[in-house]
Amino acid sequence: MFTIYGYNTFNPIKVLLTAEELGLDYTYVNVELGKGENKLPDYLARHPLGKVPALDHDGEILLESAAICRYLARLHDHRLYAADPLPAARIDALVDTATLHVGRWLAVYFWEEVICRHFFKREPNAAAIDEAAGFLKNQLPYFEQQLASADFLCGSEVTLADTIAYAYFQIQDTTSIDLSAYPHIVRWYGEFSERPSVAAVKQRLAEAGGLLPYP
Ligand SMILES: N[C@@H](CCC(=O)N[C@@H](CS)C(=O)NCC(=O)O)C(=O)O
Questions:
Q1: Atom of ligand 1 at shortest distance to CA of 52?
Q2: Ligand 1 centre and the CA of 213: distance in Å?
Q3: Domain residue spans in the chain?
Q4: What order of strands is seen across the sheet that includes strand 2-6?
Q5: DSSP symbol at 34
Q6: Which atom of ligand 1 is nearest to the CA of 63?
Q7: Which of 133, 167, 183, 206 is most buried, taking the most CB atoms under 10 A from its CB?
Q8: Residues with CB under 6 A from ligand 1
Q9: How confident is residue 119, by pLDDT bands cut at 50, 70 and 90?
Q10: Which residue has its alpha carbon closest to ligand 1 atom 1?
């Protein structure tokens, strides 16, 4: 039995999208971050840092979104991933670029324009947004180039690089990020958004009462 603990933010969404792409049968539990449910003793026993996502697989607790995604893919015949070291390393590299670079700066928009507005009732810090925009201007051309020559980030098949990167790129739906200078990223994002996995994740979040009243 698989239980995914999450919330409507990009880290849990990586895991939910991956689970849906793999056709995993799982239970979803919404951890209400806004109410501090992630800091309650029950949840801290599961995740000592009090963060989402966490995965419970038959009583084994797994943490860290990308590690959970890799684990699920390995359980499913390495689908969305690769059994061979070289293609696996190429997917890992794009996952890390999505997480440590592009996603890190996309997340600044989400933090400033969604979380701070919604939870802290303050306006976005313009200097933080400017800094993120500067880094993205240098980094997004790499993804644009990857997607100019292939349907997906790592070639002709969906991989963990796509499910994980998509979770960050969907930040554009609720923030001021403008990706119109990157037509291949826009094409990839539009096509991925039509995948049944994306609709299924939205439905899971809505059913669990985990859709924030984002703008
Ligand atoms: N590196 C972790 C990051 C997890 C993380 O920071 N999750 C955020 C939501 S996107 C969270 O739980 N924030 C609540 C908190 O830190 O109190 C992962 O990839 O799983």
A1: 12
A2: 19
A3: 2-79+197-207, 85-195
A4: 26-30, 2-6, 54-57, 60-63
A5: G
A6: 20
A7: 167
A8: 9-11, 33, 38, 50-53, 64-65
A9: confident
A10: 64
CA 131 to chain centre: 21
**Structural domain 85-195, CATH architecture:** Up-down Bundle (1.20)
- Measured in Å, residue 149 CA sits from the centre of ligand 1 at 33
Most informative mutation of 8, 10, 52, 212 for ligand 1 (most atoms within 8 A of CB): 52
Instruction: Read off the pLDDT of residues 143-153 as tens digits, 9 standing for 90 and up.
Output: 999 999 999 99
Q: What is the pLDDT of residue 209?
A: 79
CA distances from 22 to 61, 81, 148, 169, 198 (A): 19, 11, 26, 20, 12
Looking at the structure, give the CATH architecture of the domain made up of residues 2-79+197-207. 3-Layer(aba) Sandwich (3.40)
Instruction: With beta carbons less than 8 A apart as the criterion, state whether 132 and 108 touch.
Output: yes
Instruction: Answer yes or no: is pLDDT of 8 > 70.
Output: yes
The Cα 215–Cα 202 span in angstroms is: 16
